[in-house]
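Lab channel / #folding
Pinned by the channel admin:
"Please post every new chain as: sequence first, then the structure tokens as a reply. Keep commentary short and put observations after the output so the thread stays searchable."

First post following the new format, from NK:
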Amino acid sequence: MGRKSLKESRQAEIVSAFYKLAKKEGLENASIAKTAASMDINPSLIIHYFQTREQLVTALIEFILERYLQIFKTPAALEEDPQKRLLTVIDRLFSQKWNILFDDSVAYSCYSMVFRDKKLKAKFKMVLDQLRENLEKMILACNQAGELKVKDPARAADMIFVIVDGAYYYLTLVVKKEEYRKRLDYYKSQALIQLNLSASAAAHK
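Reply from TO:
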């Protein structure tokens, strides 16, 4: 792959600064002017790349997708073992590795905007659909290798992410670490059921 252009690099820097600001002050308080101040640049430079705040928020949602897709990056050694690769991703989905990829408060703030903005709604749906499609492909690979017998991989992938989304939405309210861990383990076991696996069987794969 070639190197990023200067434009792409500058846009990435701006989106990263916007994200850090939203994480610190809340998305509703993050503006082009404040982002520019945090970068010690003139606001006109940001407007050169993102004409409106809406464009910057859209880029932020794409940034969310890029961060979330990191969960699917597994060691090259697992490429020859589809089931171990899939279980590695499931482990990550139900662990702090998934939850720390992107700040919950910013993600939920972005999500709340879909109720008022159809374009952002479509963009956010694209993010969630991409995650489901990636997981579906991994389940299909396991089926084709004869390691799993999941009747409807697309439905299984969808249900697993329904569990993931619901789990972390609720777990943001859980304060006690032991309760958090137990609930996360339980939600993971329910996800494995979608693959016709038990938690104990998956642990020995």
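NK: Residues 70 and 82 are 17 Å apart (CA to CA).
TO: also worth noting, Residues 6-51 form a domain with the Arc Repressor Mutant, subunit A fold (CATH 1.10.10).
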